[in-house]
């Protein structure tokens, strides 16, 4: 079985409708016009595409991203979008139980149909992205049948620019003509003994002795196991011919391979070696025993490496501390090193290095309720750095959502909305900022963030009649690393100490204008169903007036319901939260939300 180690920049879901509705939102005031992008500190909306249905209402299947196209699934439909301008191209439809796009190769889109239950089957299909027409299909056949010697094994194919390659049921590697599905060449895999499991207590399968990575035009095959001699081979995907082979010596503990455009990385016991596609070794470097060192790619004669440290704080999820290294491809000399702190993965574009920053306002996967948490502040964010290593504070997205992937120089984000799923393409740019108008706040002045405790008038507190005490939250003076002049979160507790009367007001975000605030707020409401809770469980959203959203938020492992609200008031997005979902608490949250909705004139 072929094990492919590759970073998949995909997630999300889709439908049928295209809009270009956010082009006027957060347009940068200092974008570059030719030449190299310097000191990127802003993300401008390049285009916006909205589907006709919510992705998470069906299932959380990943979208597939390439440099030029985006394939987004929703139920029995996969829609193809030109990711350069957000233009709808075509739709492919299926009656299968699951219909998953894999990506693009040789100018076609590949997707898998799966039928479950008795008589279930798995079928690989190729479609014309321009029309949605099915070009060919291959049914998975793990057991060879007479007259079907070229049956597809059922593993995900390798997607290269000239066309796909796959493993056949008899173990051979094969190249496939992208428009017809005809097998153009085959190569029999060498007979390799299985790897041993280094740790007898590890329940996972032992590593594979045969690992494949891909560049744009080549298959990179690493043969070997811990404790054995490792060999690296480069194969041309057009004809299956070996271009070169290298003996890498014996490893002790680990054997890994990674490939990006123009660079191949092989790690043996944390000893990283970088090769060009021609087979020239351009770098050899030791990583710390607790770190991983991998290439991001090559641009303008410089190779960029990402080093991750696994010694992160408990509770940090999958985040690791990352360090970037820029190395000259011709000499191996390090040009610069930059520490990024705790981030997720990095991506290299033609003009910038884009890192995923884990912030409270971003949400991922099928976590339906997370965006509805009225206590969370800010949308998702990315770290941006130019190719000279000059970076900025985390740069917020104009919408809350899930990072889908990079398409060329564009960052794609998916957001759930009332009537569909929105995909937004963001382009790194540069805008004038200063100590007051920071990049982390989207260029909004720090002084424009109001005092959360001052948003509730003395008259309203008297009307509520419980002798409320204002309790500002000191830590809320910092949002996305920026120090605010006033607290952005305030708790209101009764002197009696009753839990039923406690509520909090949070300044969730301050946008550049009212339209941007409305767009952000729409993406932080928990619309639609949450199938993970069993059936179509909803947040029971009510909208008593424009800008006010009342709903049930679910928290903790037991997903207990609590009353929350999100309010758009001019440029301000405000959150109100309580500790339970009793009728009395719901009335309290409603009254406070209606009061905040009337503050637009005073705030603006």
UniProtKB/TrEMBL annotation:
Pfam families referenced in this protein's UniProt entry, alphabetically: PQQ_2 (PF13360)
Domain Pyrrolo-quinoline quinone repeat: 47-187
Gene3D superfamilies xref list: YVTN repeat-like/Quinoprotein amine dehydrogenase (2.130.10.10)
Family matches, as SUPFAM superfamilies: Quinoprotein alcohol dehydrogenase-like (SSF50998)
InterPro entries membership: PQQ_rpt_dom (IPR002372), Quinoprotein_ADH-like_sf (IPR011047), WD40/YVTN_repeat-like_dom_sf (IPR015943)
Designated name of the protein: Pyrrolo-quinoline quinone repeat domain-containing protein
